[in-house]
Write a structure and sequence with these properties.
Blueprint (H helix, E strand, L loop, with lengths): L6 H14 L3 E4 L4 H14 L2 E3 L9 E3 L13 E3 L4 H4 L4 E2 L2 H12 L7 E9 L8 E7 L2 H10 L1 E2 L1 H7 L6 E6 L22 E5 L4 E5 L4 H4 L2 H17 L2 E3 L1 E7 L5 E7 L6 H5 L9 E6 L3 E5 L5 E4 L4 E5 L9 H6 L5 E3 L2 E3 L4 E2 L10 E2 L5 E2 L13 E5 L16 E2 L2 E5 L9 E3 L3 H9 L2 E3 L11 E3 L12 H15 L5 E5 L18 H12 L5 E4 L2 E4 L13 H7 L4 H16 L7 H13 L3
Parallel strand pairs: 1-6, 3-19, 4-5, 4-10, 7-9, 9-11, 14-26, 26-30
Antiparallel strand pairs: 2-3, 6-7, 6-8, 10-11, 12-16, 13-14, 13-15, 16-17, 17-25, 18-24, 19-24, 20-21, 20-22, 22-23, 27-30, 28-29, 31-32
The structure holds guanosine-5'-triphosphate, sulfopyruvate and manganese (II) ion (MN).
The site of guanosine-5'-triphosphate (GTP) has 22 residues, from α9 and β18.
Length: 596
């Protein structure tokens, strides 16, 4: 029997059951016993492999289909009634049309499978900022991951009550089983049948055909960013692709920093930063998404809507991100990593090399194989509570007050290590024109560098130009309490391809300069692109960066910036007359400062 009397929920589950025709319906209660049972089921069916429990208790490894390894942006849709409300950065389809197409696919798609109902809460159960979603899925992998990255089960149904509202999130891997047909380890549908669809005007998500990450764990990118950004626009709050961290000075002053970088550009690493500068302390609040509201005292307060990390595995090591390594010592799910001969997991960039193992495609692997053993977008899933530096206030219902916004991307050339915006509007311009090099987090991004405004290009559920206006409007409401805005780039390289900046824990030096700027203590110099640290203002003591590299890291190459202007303006032109007047002013100012 269903564990709820919520009429909307009961009616929706009944409707989807009739459409998808599963063999069984199962309501998730979110208990440890349930998690263990569902994960054990995937081990027995051959969908996952248990990691050596002596090395890593209660952990499993999944290997996905080689065609289903990351988000697919070309198959992701924003189905608003009017095309211009989705805007030029989104794929649009008419909602009725899209539903018609998808209903045909959903018809009978769960035959031979179990339909799981996952009641989940984005944000702490007792937070006024949180929202409830219900995901229906036929993937036990999705259930297990959702039970880590969101708060699931009975406690959510209790908050929902008999007539509470929720966001319906329908997911199917799109691989019905005929009677007697044997399942494959990672069922999914061919590319042209995959749809990751959002109906922002009715707060509805329909996903079909992919089992991976943001395509399938619908609380994450689909609800907490695409649908939530559209709700936030309507309701006057913010849903952002941002990490949140608390940075505490030796004197005990706390600064809360929220930072938006595109996928695979350093959020998880910065969120778990181990400062190298003496006396400063960092604590993690969230590593991917921030929901923010203006509090009665006028400050902007942020919560992490998630309860677990879905982090990029390759490159993660005790040297680069020890706190992530500590977070995955047990109770973790690994996807597309190497299985070592002693049944532990491994990936490129881990501390010790691996001489022999099974690669993410299930084949024998050695370093001589000529291909990476882990997929470049291999991931770990682990509960936030396992992070040794999780902030004691990470579940505070009212969130934490944000002092600083960071934006950035992966840029080998041109963009300096750090730039402070002249003011909020200039910060919005810097964030709106942010660009980044391609990574493995999305399958189908064209070109090498793309504009990724606010790191929200793949995640904004409405017209990006209206989103910029929303940022201007928020600053008017925040007034003097608006956070200070900075732009950073950890990814500069010299001509031989060597990193100019050591990054990771050393990024704390840059954060310290920002905090001192907030307090009016550190010096900066004005340049045509913004304010940069004055000579000696950013602490470099004990750091092995040559004077030459340091000069390069802060060099403002006016000609290179001038050369980007036409492309920036072309990008802006795609939004036509929806570009806010305040953005046009910023564009004109940028030209003027560069002497154009
Ligand atoms: P998503 O989960 O896709 O949103 O990614 P993310 O923004 O959380 O990126 P993450 O922190 O996982 O970093 C992605 C890659 O960038 C990893 O391979 C990291 O090792 C690398 N990286 C992160 N921070 C730094 C840094 O400061 N310097 C350098 N050189 N690399 C970094
Ligand atoms: C991202 O791509 O920004 C991620 C991974 O955080 S996924 O959840 O797959 O979108
Ligand atoms: Mn992300």
């Amino acid at each position: 029997m269903a564990p709820t009397r919520n009429k909307k929920l009961l009616a929706w589950v009944e409707e989807i059951q009739a459409l998808c025709k599963p063999d069984e319906v199962y309501w998730c209660d979110g208990s440890q016993e349930e998690y263990d049972r569902i994960v054990e089921g995937t081990v027995r069916s051959g969908a996952s492999v248990r990691v050596n429990p002596e090395k890593r208790p209660n952990s499993v490894l999944f290997r996905s289909a080689p065609s289903d390894v990351a988000r697919v942006e070309v198959r992701t849709y924003i189905a608003s009634r009017k095309e211009e409300d989705a805007g030029p950065t989104n794929n649009w389809m008419d909602p009725d049309e899209l539903k018609k197409t998808m209903r045909v696919l959903y018809d009978g798609c769960m035959r031979g499978r179990t339909l799981y109902v996952i009641p989940f809460c984005m944000g702490p159960i007792d937070s006024p900022i949180s929202k409830i979603g219900i995901e229906i899925t036929d993937s036990p992998y999705v259930v297990a991951n959702m039970e880590i990255v969101t708060r699931v089960g009975t406690k959510v149904l209790e908050r929902l009550g008999d007539d509470g509202d929720f966001i319906p999130c329908l997911h199917s891997v799109g691989a019905p089983l005929e009677p007697g047909q044997k399942d494959v380890p990672w069922p999914c549908a061919p590319m042209e049948q995959k749809y990751i669809s959002h109906f922002p005007e009715e707060n509805l998500i329909w996903s079909y055909g992919s089992g991976y990450g943001g395509n399938a764990l619908l609380g994450k990118k689909c609800l907490a960013l695409r649908i939530a950004s559209a709700m936030a626009h309507r309701e006057g709050w913010m849903a952002e692709h941002m990490l949140i961290l608390r940075f505490t000075s030796p004197e005990g002053r706390q600064y809360h920093i929220a930072g938006a970088f595109p996928s695979a550009c350093g959020k998880t690493n910065l969120a778990m930063l181990q400062p190298t500068i003496p006396g400063w302390k960092a604590e993690c609040i969230g590593d991917d998404i921030a929901w923010m509201k203006i509090a009665p005292d006028g400050s902007l307060r942020a919560i992490n809507p998630e309860s677990g990390f879905f982090g990029v595995a390759p490159g993660t090591s005790y040297k680069s991100n020890p706190m992530a390594m500590e977070s995955i010592r047990e109770n973790a799910i690994f996807t597309n990593c190497v299985l070592t001969d002693d049944h532990d997991i491994w990936w490129e960039g881990m501390d010790e090399p691996c001489e022999h193992g099974i690669d993410w495609k299930g084949r024998e692997w050695t370093p001589a194989s000529g291909e990476p053993g882990a997929n470049p977008n291999a991931r770990f899933t682990a509960p936030c509570r396992q992070c040794p530096i999780i902030c004691p206030d990470w579940e505070a219902p009212d969130g934490v007050p944000i002092d600083i916004f960071l934006f950035g991307g992966r840029r080998t050339h041109v963009v300096p290590l750090v730039t402070e915006a002249f003011d909020w509007d200039h910060g919005v311009y810097l964030a709106a024109t942010a660009a980044s090099e391609k990574t493995a987090a999305a399958l189908d991004v064209k070109g090498t560098i793309r504009r990724d405004p606010f790191a929200m290009h793949p995640f904004c559920g409405y017209n990006m130009a209206d989103y910029w206006q929303h940022w201007f409007t928020m600053s008017d409401r925040l007034g003097g309490k608006a956070p200070k805005i900075f732009y950073v780039n950890w990814f500069r390289k010299n001509p031989d391809g060597r990193w100019l900046w050591p990054g990771f824990g050393e990024n704390s030096r840059v954060l310290k300069w920002m905090c001192e700027r907030v307090d009016g203590k550190a010096e900066a110099v004005d340049t045509p692109i913004g304010r940069l640290p004055a000579d000696g203002a950013l602490e470099l003591e004990g750091l092995d960066v040559s004077a030459e590299d340091w000069a390069e890291l802060l060099r403002v190459d006016v000609d290179a910036w001038k050369a980007e202007i036409p492309e920036v303006e072309e990008f802006m032109a795609r939004f036509g007359d929806r570009v806010p007047p305040r953005m046009r002013t910023q564009m004109a100012n940028a030209r003027k400062r560069l002497g154009l």
